Amino acid sequence: MSDRKMILATFIHNSGAHPGGWRYPGAAPVDQHDFQSYARLAQTAERGKLHCYFSGDSQAFPSISGRDAFTATDYAGKLEPTTLLAALAAVTRDIGLIATVSTTYNEPYSIARRFASIDHISGGRAGWNVVTSAGGNEAKNFGRDELMDHEDRYERAEEFVDIVKALWDSFEDDAHIRDRANARYIDWRKLHQLNHRGKHFTVAGPLNIGRPPQGHPVIVQAGGSGPGRALSARTADLIFTAASSLDAAKIFYADLKERAVGFGRDPDHMLVIPSMQLMVRSTEAECRALDEELLGLIPSALALRTLSFQLGFDLSGYAPGDALPEIPLTNGGQWVQQQIIKMARDEDLTIEKLAQRVSVSRASYSQTGTPEQIADMCETWFRAGGADGFALSPNYLPGALEDFVDQVVPILQKRGLFRTDYEGATLRENLGIPRPANSFVANPTLGSEPTIWA
Question: For an engineered disulfide with 13, which of 17, 78, 171, 435 has Cβ 3.0 to 4.6 Å away?
């Protein structure tokens, strides 16, 4: 494994991952409706030879209550991510393009078609981050009074992903023969109809677009609960996770790899990349000053309300100096909730101190350091079995991403830990993940009569 290389992605979160990032004087005044801002970020990541540009999403405002806290967030202006990725495909050449789309408030056929289209438009660079929506405000935008039960969301997601993958296989790779002389655009024997009937969905198929260049666009998953890990280990190619320490990262990494083996998969074909909030400065004094300046830009009301949101528990009745009370298991994002509770107990943090930490990192690892210190940390986690690489969540834009690309990436390349150029044409090739076989060819019993062309 001496030639093993890191996977590096960038996860773009609003105007920056730090809640004070949009106010930072060193950040560009970003209008989140301006496509050129996203284009420059994707091109910067591509210049650094990063594997993926990752666009997060939710379909509602977060449940941040309180006028002062709500208006201090930068959630107003999120472009729909698959639309954005299609546009980014035209201004980039090599970098993978990943979008978050929920299985809770969408339908398999439309999502299969959307990502197949992006994969064709980009020449095989699309990826789908599969999420189960965890916000109550999203439910209210889609005809529900409250969030679907956690177990039910993941059961629905399991069926959803299986349908999408099968729909991507509707056409065999050589089904489009375009025989003008005999008036045969497709070979009907290489077109397959799914006719799925399950607990949550009834989908006939076939998909009305040819098989994607990657066979299946790369599947990304970020669930950390038991059902989330099971979904990841069975279906995902890339695992996006949060870990506040190397020890926590190693435990999660080993568990996901073991689960993958349990599903008969090669664990090297399922890559784990923790989210990192990394900032670079020349000296340690400058690092401390930057951390303090950014923390000072977070209104206390926003920090406390963000903590309540992430925990799924209203803390307004407690004093900032109190210890965190006992928190019942949420119906929302359980993995993040449990990591935050563990952080509070392990480090004996007051609610106020925990709120500051959580509003910045959301249970991810955060470090400000010199280029060498950041590179050392990445190398340590990578070699110790904590990660196959990292998803950089820049705290402010575009500077935090530019600093990492210009100052840290060259060090990782010099150490032989990161590539110096793109090796393949598709995202799968650059990740070292094989192209999947067509499921209908591999399993002739899949699908059923009748067919629409009978």
Answer: 17
pLDDT digit string (tens) for 243-259?
889 999 999 999 999 99
How far apart (Å, rounded) are the C-alpha atoms in residues 252 and 360? 22
- Distances from the Cα of 101 to the Cα of 54, 83, 221, angstroms: 12, 11, 11
Structure tokens at 361: 């990192």
Please report the DSSP string for 49-110 in residue order: T-SEEEE---SS-----SHHHHHTS--TTPPPHHHHHHHHHTT-SSSEEEEEEESSSS-HHH
On the question of a cis peptide bond just before residue 320, with omega within 30 degrees of 0, the verdict is no
pLDDT value of position 2: 60
- Where do the DSSP E strands lie in 282-429? 365-369, 389-392
Is-contact 405 50, C-beta < 8 A? Answer: yes
List, for residues 174-185, the tens digit of each pLDDT value.
999 999 999 999
Spacing of C-alpha 335 from chain mean position: 15
